[in-house]
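Support request from a user on the community tier.

User writes: "When I paste my structure tokens into the form, the page sometimes reloads and wipes my input. The last time it worked, I copied everything first. Here is what I submitted, just in case something in the input itself triggers the reload:"
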């Protein structure tokens, strides 16, 4: 065997694997993904020609490193439908908690990605035993390396050159969706450009006078219409307690739904009798997932485009509703059944206005009641209810559930919903099991609080993000016994609940389109916070006074570009949406100065 054969072997396998992972995100075949993958594979393989020894070991190490990177991307893309950025990859404190969710996707066929490594490892061991020395296979090695290098540059630059020829030179490094780099340059190219952005573009900025005026005008001139459907008095809950309940992966389509005659969310359904229920309400999280939901709900600002805002900018002076309530004598407490470092909450929460944070270490005997990623919802809500009952009023509670998290696995003895049909054991069936369990667990929290405490508290219940996605549509279609179009999926199955409950409220169901960005100004209105204290800081609107003409979804780097109108029509991003994201990121990067 000579060096040229090894170069070809390594190039072919790295190109194939890189292109394969790239295509997981793309609807059409991408020439750019193929040529750039080939060019980069050829580049790293060509150095074998210059080595005088250790060529097989070099090929083995390079192949192993790139394959591990590709496989992590493969698993991440399979779960989130977006490529992993370096910001997310370096959030190592999340690795333990997310391990079951992401690596739960492992399948025995995944080993095909590693088959060439196994072959190289075997060949390396054989070569050491036989003391094999690879031949050059060609006399002018340096000339061959130069020719390969030229070919490499040609492959990598082909797509950019064509873009320039077509007058698209300004689009070379612009990223409109998470898949933009992948479509143009493949997964290897995405990794390189993403790393460049991480190393050189993650900087604080200083806004000039013109930028400040533009943002201020944008926040004060929202494109909305006057609300005529809802009549709820301003400040109705002034001086009352408030408890935010951020429910993991809870989608709106399970509310009031039955399986085999059994309600999936009987307790929440009961709360609706004294609630305002926004049932056309959308999650707007990005790469920060659950932590983004917290940012949206408390500060009414969109998360950054890359990575988790909580990790990148934990020290910012976020303009949250907690800080306004704290000025009125409220104490704010956060509760979560995971490690305090998960999503960097222990660093960010003080800057959102929380006075205390109770993580898994704050719960006695927590190690005896774990389900999935952390504390079981039953134990978590029961103990949290006890703690809230003891808090001096007025207070803010912020409880984040956990059990209803992908892959929705539970012990048989913990299940509270039994199914006998084809749903049993399916992803959708498992989701229904954990939804029902979390609903019944929430009931335990209310059971620990006195009637007087509940009457003096407003509960804000919302889902953080989806658990069942478009990729799982076939299971929903089988369950429903009908086809579901993509438009129907966005309008009927991609929403999460937003419920405001208090025993003194009259039942109202609101069909206006809204998003998590609207929680803070809407709740501020109910709590009697003067509008002037939040209107020029919030990107969302008070849903009791305004109707959105449309809202938009975020995914990774705001990739789906879906704008959903109040009539249920689906459009793509326009100037308003792009400005919203640009201005919110500028505010975060400038520390709101």
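"...and here is what came back when it finally went through:"
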């Amino acid at each position: 065997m000579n060096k040229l054969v090894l170069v070809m072997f390594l190039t072919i396998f790295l190109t194939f694997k890189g292109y394969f992972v790239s295509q997981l995100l793309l609807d059409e075949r991408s020439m750019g993904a193929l040529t750039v993958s080939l060019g980069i594979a050829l580049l790293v393989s060509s150095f074998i020609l210059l080595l005088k020894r250790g060529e097989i070991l070099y090929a083995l190490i390079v192949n192993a490193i790139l394959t591990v990177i590709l496989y992590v991307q493969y698993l991440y893309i399979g779960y989130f439908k977006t490529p992993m950025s370096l910001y997310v990859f370096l959030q190592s404190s999340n690795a333990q908690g997310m391990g079951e969710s992401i690596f739960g996707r492992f399948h025995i066929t995944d080993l095909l990605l590693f088959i060439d490594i196994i072959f190289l490892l075997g060949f390396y061991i054989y070569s050491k035993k036989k003391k094999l020395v690879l031949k050059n296979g060609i006399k002018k090695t340096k000339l061959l390396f130069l020719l390969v290098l030229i070919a490499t540059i040609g492959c990598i630059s082909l797509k950019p050159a064509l873009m320039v020829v077509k007058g698209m030179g300004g689009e070379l490094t612009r990223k409109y969706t998470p898949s933009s780099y992948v479509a143009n340059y493949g997964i290897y190219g995405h990794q390189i450009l993403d790393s460049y952005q991480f190393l050189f573009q993650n900087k604080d900025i200083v806004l000039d006078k013109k930028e400040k005026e533009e943002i201020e005008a944008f926040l004060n001139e929202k494109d909305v219409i006057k609300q005529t459907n809802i009549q709820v008095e301003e400040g109705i809950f002034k001086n009352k307690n408030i408890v935010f309940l951020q429910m993991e992966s809870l989608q709106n389509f399970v509310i009031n739904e039955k399986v085999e005659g059994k309600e999936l969310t009987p307790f929440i359904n009961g709360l609706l009798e004294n609630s305002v229920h926004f049932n056309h309400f959308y999650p707007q999280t990005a790469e920060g997932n659950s932590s983004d939901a917290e940012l949206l709900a408390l500060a009414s600002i969109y998360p950054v485009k890359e990575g988790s805002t909580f990790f990148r900018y934990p020290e910012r002076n976020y303009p949250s509703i907690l800080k306004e309530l704290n000025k009125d004598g409220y104490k704010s407490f956060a509760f979560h059944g995971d490690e305090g470092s998960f999503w960097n909450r222990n660093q960010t929460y003080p800057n959102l206005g929380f006075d205390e944070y109770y993580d898994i270490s704050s719960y006695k005997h927590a190690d005896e009641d774990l389900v999935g990623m952390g504390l079981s919802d039953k134990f978590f809500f029961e103990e949290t209810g006890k703690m809230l009952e003891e808090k001096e009023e007025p207070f803010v509670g912020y409880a984040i559930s956990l059990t209803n998290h992908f892959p929705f696995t539970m012990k048989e003895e913990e299940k509270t919903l039994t199914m006998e049909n084809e749903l049993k054991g399916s992803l959708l069936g498992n989701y229904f099991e954990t939804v029902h369990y979390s609903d019944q667990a929430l009931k335990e929290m209310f059971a620990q609080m006195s009637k007087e405490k509940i009457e003096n508290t407003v509960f804000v219940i919302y889902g953080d993000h989806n658990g069942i996605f478009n990729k799982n549509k076939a299971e929903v279609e089988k369950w429903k016994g009908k086809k579901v179009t993509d438009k129907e999926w966005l309008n009927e199955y991609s929403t999460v609940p937003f419920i405001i409950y208090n025993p003194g409220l009259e039942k109202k169901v609101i069909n206006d389109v809204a998003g998590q960005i609207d929680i803070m100004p809407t709740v501020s209105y109910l709590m009697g916070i003067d509008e002037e204290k939040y209107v020029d800081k919030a990107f969302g609107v008070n849903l009791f006074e305004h109707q959105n003409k449309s809202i938009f979804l975020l995914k990774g780097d705001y990739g789906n570009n879906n704008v959903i109108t109040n009539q249920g029509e689906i459009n793509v991003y326009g100037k308003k949406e792009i400005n919203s994201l640009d201005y919110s990121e500028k505010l975060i990067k400038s520390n709101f100065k």
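Agent notes: The reload is a front-end session timeout and is unrelated to the input. The CA atoms of residues 470 and 486 lie 8 Å apart. The longest strand covers residues 241-247. Escalated to web team.
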